[in-house]
Amino acid sequence: MSAERTRSFFDEMAKTYDDDLRALGWNPVSVVREWPFAVAPGERVLDAGCGTGALLQHLAGAARRLSGFDLSEGMVARARARRSLRDADLRVHDAGQPWPFPDGSFDVVFAFGMLEFVEQLDRAFDELGRVLAPHGRALVSVEDIVDWEGEQRPGMELRYGRFPLWRRTLEDVDVRLPPGLDIVTARRQPAYVVLELGFTTAYHVIELVRRPIGSG
User: Which DSSP state fits 62?
Assistant: First the structure.
């Protein structure tokens, strides 16, 4: 799916997005709560693919500075409407392009439900590693289709051409990480079932750390 089609897709669902996620049973806020991964007071946080800003709102009392970007103007508008995010730096931006932040800008980066819409994972992880400060941490998700039946349904592959980007394994991530950006731990957990489209999904939730180049 092109960036323009992805933008239109999420603009259309921006008003119901949070409710839709709850109905599917996939909630990044719950993932962060359950993960042994805390944002320390004073840290600078980026949510890449921030959607409506729900995760940033959850972190509003902890971080020193909150930033986020999303491809969808509709999503960013919803995020900006949250009172707790009135001082956050929220931008409309394509994650497949160079991220609009200087090197080492953040101590923590989150990227949930975004990487499956980026064709070049290498470029996205290069940018993630670039904006992370030394010893910075990231928590990201990569979607992986578990049971695909599209081949049995004529036109399914053509209509939902983005789905091949959802067939990614942990190994797909590992081989695309730039030097100094390392996997700390990962979990594979069920996400949701979309019966009418013929697939079930799981997410690889991956914790990364930015090690200074040259460190052991």
Answer: T
Measured from the Cβ of residue 10, the count of other Cβ atoms closer than 10 Å reads 21
In the chain, what are the domains? 3-210 (3.40.50.150)
Strand spans (E) along 72-166: 89-92, 106-111, 132-148
152 phi and psi, to 5 degrees?
A: -90, 0
Tokens of 1: 């799916």
CB 110 within 8 A of CB 140: yes
Picking from 49-63, 68-82, 191-205, which range would have the lowest pLDDT averaged per residue?
A: 191-205
pLDDT class of 161 with cuts at 50, 70, 90 = very low
**Residue at 96: amino acid letter:** G
Q: What is the rounded average pLDDT of the residues 90-101?
A: 95
> For residue 37, what pLDDT is reported?
77
Residue with tokens 């986020």: 68
- Rounded to an integer, what distance in angstroms lies between the CA atom of residue 55 and that of residue 45? 11
Q: CA-CA distance, 106 to 40, in Å (whole number)? A: 12
* pTM listed for this prediction: 0.84
In angstroms, the CA 137 to CA 132 distance is 7
37's CB contacts (< 8 A; 6+ apart) are: 137, 139, 207
Q: Please state the rounded mean pLDDT for residues 92-99.
A: 94
How far apart (Å, rounded) are the C-alpha atoms in residues 171 and 132? Answer: 22
